[in-house]
Amino acid sequence: MANTYQMLAARVIGVEQVTPLIKRFTLVRQDGKLLPDFTGGSHIIVQMKDADGRQHSNAYSLMSDPRQTASYQIGVRLEEQSKGGSAFMHQQVEVGTELMISTPNNLFAIDPKAGRHVLIAGGIGITPFLSQVYELRDSGADYQLHYAFRSPEHGAFQDELSAGPHADRTRLYADSLGQSLNLTELMGALASDAHVYVCGPKPLIDAVIATGKQLGLADDRVHWEQFAAAPVTGGAFTLVLAKSGQELRVEAGMSILKAIEKANVDVECLCREGVCGTCETRILEGEAAHNDQYLSDDEKAAQQTMMICVSRARGERLVLDL
Length: 322
Prior knowledge:
This protein is of the alpha/beta class. It contains seven helices and 18 strands. It has helices at 85-91, 127-138, 158-163, 183-188, 202-214, 256-262, 297-302; strands at 7-17, 22-29, 43-49, 55-61, 72-77, 98-102, 116-122, 143-149, 170-174, 194-199, 222-225, 237-241, 246-250, 280-285, 288-289, 305-307, 312-313, 317-320. Strands 4-3-6-1-2-5 form a six-stranded antiparallel sheet, covered by helices on one side. Strands 9-8-7-10-11 form a five-stranded parallel sheet, sandwiched between helices. It has a five-stranded mixed sheet with strand order 13-12-18-14-16.
């Protein structure tokens, strides 16, 4: 059932403006101890509190070397449609700021079965790969990183990739310079034991998944991650909370979590983006339209549980174990 995270008190010891929209934050534990171990592709949840006491929680990939746990580094893009978290990180957080962070979790791990690893990043989607390339290099794995961005000034961390130990494995593509990433060409030339990993804007992820299907790549050879809740779509439906018998109307465009909170029912949910697993809830009747990244395809098909922060009902009525 639901994932449980331990929360740690952390302090910001470094803030760097990397591009006009992206900042890098360096975090250490308040108690001075080493942070928990993690593997490449892991994320943490960062909890922030506004001056008015409103709490935000966002998931961010760890982008530092997994062998160095004296500190963690995350990259945060200032989102135009920020729900509050990215704006808070950019406008309120400075050296000395105290934050609560979760222990790491990994939904985007390197697959040890792969003979070659092809990493495809778009924009801020570069962050999980920055920890993965350390891991791949240390294990002597065969890997390539393909990183696409709008224009040179928006290519975060490109200088350290170009000049660092991964330079000969990295290809950069700046759209404004006419350097486009040809997915069919790249993925069509893959050996049968190669795996593809993609992180970035939804159109890039969709394009990689679609190209993989066109080329006949098995689903388990294409891995993806996106920290952005899927837009809440679909019509209104009736939600029944089985433990109290309470019936709620979940309107079109509203998440189940919002409807439950509006009814003053307490539910634990850390990320609100379908990645942390804390709001996993048992389905007693009806089916879910799954929008999370936490459950596997088999678990989604089984229709036993759902993430109420992003997923909705597939029909007119849904009964949950709440």
